[in-house]
Protein: DUF3159 domain-containing protein
Amino acid sequence: MGGVAGIVYSTIPVAVFVVVNLLTGLKPALIAALATGGAITIWRLVRREALQPAISGLIGVGVCAFIANRTGEARDFYLPGLLYSAFFAVAFLISVVVRWPLAGVVWHGINGDGHGWRRDPRMLRAYTFASLLWTVVFAARVVVQGWLYNADEANWLGIARLAMGYPLLGVALLGTVWAVRRARRSPLPAS
Structure:
């Protein structure tokens, strides 16, 4: 994601969209969000920082802007994020039901540790807990932001998107780290 800077940079175009839409309207907000995403990409290029997060963010803003522009509805700027959250809420929940908690699959996939963790009941419980936590985070977004989307509250939807974005992901990530570390420290159950 490009570290803390990548997180901040990916939030700025959405924040710009929220403010400009509130003050002026949809078209200027779309232009401002796209221009901000482009400026961030150029800024990262000039500073010789990783471009992948900036380009991914610019593509994401572009997709959101395209949809909102086609429908003429500011709330549709947030529709891809809402669908993304719904997809991940369902994916994390299904992974728990089938006993392949996605938090463990992702964690060990990133670290290249394989799937041996599934044989350890402590780790399986920890990743199940973590996956349920991620399910709650994504489902909370869908419930709150979906309600605002259906109520056609584009400005409040933007504020909710920012408030429920990285702060909630941070909570889920901390919960995952806590659960994994706790599981690694606890003794193996007697056979």
User: Anything to note?
Assistant: The chain has two domains: 1-72, 73-191.
